[in-house]
Amino acid sequence: QAQGLPPHVMQSIAKELNLSETTFVLPPDDPHHDCRVRIFTPAVELPMAGHPTIGTAFVLARAQATEQRTHPTSLTLEEGVGPISVSITWQEDSPVCVDMSQPLPVFGPHFLDTDVMARMLSVAPRAITDTGLPMEVVSCGVPFLFVPVRSLHEVRGIQFRRDVWDRALRGFEAPHVFVFTPETETREAHAHCRMFAPALGISEDPATGGASGPLGCYLLRHGLIGVDAQGEAHCLSEQGFEMGRRSFLRIQLTRTGGAITRVQVGGQCYVMGEGQLFLDV
Q1: Whole-model pTM above 0.85?
Q2: Average pLDDT over residues 81-103
Q3: What is the 3-state secondary structure (H, E, C) of the chain?
Q4: For residue 44, what are the domain limits?
């Protein structure tokens, strides 16, 4: 429990740990919910993020596990965007898969300067324009700028230029650049992805759950995935390969009457380590 820690100390801890995000668990404002979660990157606090939500739910469920469970359990976490529902699937007495609901998508403006984006990514402009798809802002809590690239080879070769980003996107409403291609490393995936977020203090992120829901919404909106007879869409994204930190994210959407009415993102979690911090505050 992080109760009593002032926000500037939370931010300092996140900067010192230098992970993509660090979460702090607090008592809930609503007693019907399980806890309140504050999420910090090394540079800023976020209103919501995918992997921190999934990881925090996994840790909380693991700490509370006392018996073998055969049915999924649920938690409700209070975040800056409001309550987030999380479902946990168990294998015997251990949580193994976690799925979170995300806010419904908001589609924002298109970024129109292909030449600037091409310089930022160190690719040819046609690597973007040949896809026939827009560079578009989509948010399910945190806005990302989605940039389609035509080939896996070109995505692998991206050299992100911070100097171009400083001039072009620092003040843009969605400065976090999420690049994807439909060409994938693995047969099961629908998109191969990379995410660059200098504004968050993250040079590149190996897994971005908060962008995965919007990614699925983008893919569905532009016909790169479809829905089944029940109006459900399922896809898998792969990310972090270029960093040597492979991740896979499940995305599930429901479309009703032409509108996206449900967004869920999930995956498997693993314990990597644990420790203690001693603070003089």
Answers
A1: yes
A2: 91
A3: CCCCCCHHHHHHHHHHHCCCCEEEEECCCCCCCCEEEEEECCCCEECCCHHHHHHHHHHHHHHHCCCCCCCCEEEEEEECCEEEEEEEEEECCEEEEEEEECCCCEEEEECCCHHHHHHHHCCCHHHHHCCCCCCEEEECCCEEEEEECCCHHHHHCCCCCHHHHHHHCCCCCCCCEEEEECCCCCCCCCEEEEEEEHHHCEEEECCCHHHHHHHHHHHHHCCCCCCCCCCEEEEEEEECHHHCCCEEEEEEEEEECCEEEEEEEEEECCCCCCCCCCCCC
A4: 7-101
